[in-house]
Amino acid sequence: MNVLKEILAMIKNYDTIIIHRHQRPDPDAIGSQVGLAEILRESFPKKQIFQAGGPVEGLEFLAEMDTVADECYKGALVIVTDTANAPRISDERYSLGDKLIKMDHHPNDDPYGDLVWVNPKASSCSEIIADFYHENQTELVMNNKAARLLYAGIVGDTGRFLYPSTTPHTLNVAAELMTYDFNTAELNRELEQIPMSVAKLAGYVYQNIDVDENGAAKVTLPQSLMDEYGIVDSETAAIVSLPGVIDEVVAWAIFVEQPEGYYRVRLRSKGPIINELAKQHHGGGHPLASGANAKDDKEVAVIYQKIQQLCKQYKK
User: Fold this and answer.
1) What are phi and psi of 296, to 5 degrees?
2) What is the per-residue pLDDT across 157-187, written as a single tens digit (0 to 9) for each?
3) What is the pLDDT, as a whole number, of residue 232?
4) How far apart are CA 61 and CA 179, in angstroms?
5) Cα–Cα dist 88/246, whole Å
6) In the CATH hierarchy, which fold is given to the domain comprising 3-192?
7) Residues near 172 by Cβ (< 8 Å), separated by ≥ 6?
């Protein structure tokens, strides 16, 4: 029995299933989590299916979370999507269930759970959920809500199919999801829209980016600037890809100061592998898209120096 069949068998054994995702969700986190929930609701109407986690931070147009009582976890199956490391799971009650399944597309550095399905070659966790459906489509039912959510997750994690993780299979999955009844043009607009404050921040990014001779770039967003623009950390996700359109830029970091004083570090690359660097600074992720943390300006400088070294080696 392959792992996707094993996951379905375990799902069929439980009356209550609670699905979690990572903190500070992006479209793929919500898409994979709630897309899976909608497939299971459609397929098993007698089961109790919950989506659990903290605030969805501007992604309410995709879905919102359920209120899940502690007692619901007793004897329940818990599934976590799109979350590489257990400490990043939103709502730590995920550990209160009877069994735990991990479904993800990040490198499997933290293989938590009783059953693990990880495919780092997939563009997104939403693509993985679509594959799970296809493997078991004699027993699972896709609906319009699930298709919309999975499509949103794929679009979000592929940068509208621009990133190297986009494969022919990714496009085939997206094309099939588009055959369901939802407005793709409207959804794409909702995914792309940014408030005026973020648009102004984009201007700041372009005016204040530092790029060295090897294409290593950085932008620092101090808390005072965030306050001035009226922006919270989650909104900075919209500007992370901006340095990538500059031809001289090879790899870059955006350092976002948090109210507590440390920096959240968003790392991206056009070639140099950056996830090992992220792991050295309390983070991780994909080879070309990762996140990390810096406790102070000194660690910010260290991380940027490492990016510079990676770019220099890459250029040789």
Assistant:
1) -160, 180
2) 999 998 889 999 999 999 999 999 999 999 9
3) 87
4) 20
5) 32
6) inorganic pyrophosphatase (n-terminal core) (3.90.1640)
7) none
